[in-house]
Amino acid sequence: MDGVTVVSLEHAIAAPFCTRQLADLGARVIKIERPGAGDFARGYDERVRGQASHFVWTNRSKESLALDVKTPDGQAVLMALLEKADVLIQNLAPGAADRLGLSYAALRERLPRLIVCNISGYGPDGPYRDKKAYDLLIQSEAGFLSVTGEGDQPAKAGCSIADISAGMYAYSNILAALIARGQTGKGKQIDVSMLECMVEWMSFPLYYAFEGAEAPPRVGAAHATIFPYGPFPAGDGLSVMLGIQNDREWAAFCATVLERPELTDDPRFARNSQRSANRDVLKAIIEAVFARLTADEVVARLDAAGIANARVNDMKQVWDHPQLKARSRWTLVETPAGPIPALLPPGQSQADAPRMDPVPAVGEHNRAILEELGLEPVSSAA
To answer: Exposed, middle or buried by CB within 10 Å (0-12, 13-18, 19+), for 128?
Structure first.
């Protein structure tokens, strides 16, 4: 994406995650921030050498321009940037971009090649249009909490899944729009709703509950409808995650892992629907066998049987994951507080090194950007 310029009025996670991925591919991303504090995600925590964990994750390889876009001087700078831009992306509060004159309708006559991507909680119309939307609120509205957790206790995802889903759909739609512009010469408007992104990801439980059928129950870390598929404790106090997808794997699991081949055709367990219906009985059988083994021994048996399995890792174990180390997936990026490790972007071609430039300080690129535009420093810029 070298040569593509993205101007982003962004905060929090959804839009910054989208634009960071565009930057990973080589796009120039100019991040517009409030003078002074900047993106409020900079203040979420201080876990990374005094910097916010969310912010350093989603904002490398960008240029920060501190600009008050509500002032005439700030508007002039912003429009000068858009004259040279390929993409405008924003996830401001509902209606804020329109009030600033940044809607696609307001810009398309002057800037017909500009792609305008809006990320919102609920979309540009409908009764929920003006509601504030945060990640956990969207998880709730999309039904995610109704199927996640255990028993009567819902649980949120441990990462910003609604923001991430919106960022991914914005990213892929922008790439498609750039391809389309190469064919038509015209930009377009993209509207990404966090609710719609999460409901798309909820399609399995939605269809499972089709026409009023009972929804998947909350079953903690286990799978709601496939069994055995989930974590099981070993005798050394560690847990092993395993998943059986079909009856052939079930037979191998009985013979090699449980060493009880007679269970293969037991009418309580012969098919997945029967195993799932009788999961409490089967769970007790599996745990009794695993209690005599260490986690390593369980994994060895599962590998020998060709059964998919994984260790239940914590964050330290992921930082030290042997597979990521063997594939040299970690590098360093600079930040205002010094270098930090960063995972190389997934899916990169070996022919093209990913862009892994620094995380910027607020307004770090003001002078360079304004000089490039032939403008003097303005009162609305830090």
So the answer is: middle
The residue ranges of every structural domain in the chain are 5-202+325-372, 229-311
pLDDT of residue 382 exceeding 60: no
In CATH terms, the fold of domain 229-311 is formyl-coa transferase, domain 3 (3.30.1540)
Contact residues for 168 (Cβ-Cβ < 8 A; gap 6+): 17, 18, 197
Give the lowest-confidence range in 30-44, 185-199, 366-380: 366-380
On the question of pLDDT at 254 being above 60, the answer is: yes
Is 365 part of the annotated catalytic residue set?
Answer: no
Residue tagged active-site, from 11, 54, 223, 365: 223
- pLDDT level of residue 381 (50, 70, 90 thresholds): low
Q: Do 276 and 227 meet the contact criterion of CB atoms below 8 Å apart?
A: yes
Full-model pTM: 0.91
| Fold type of domain 5-202+325-372 | Rossmann fold (3.40.50)
The side-by-side arrangement of strands in the sheet containing 229-233 is 229-233, 239-243, 308-311
The two beta strands, 149-150 and 308-311, are unpaired
278-300 pLDDT per residue, tens:
999 999 999 999 999 999 999 99
**Cα dist. 23→3, 20, 28, 234, 260 in Å?**
11, 5, 6, 44, 54
Residue 41: DSSP 8-state: G
Q: How many CB atoms lie within 10 A of CB 215?
A: 14
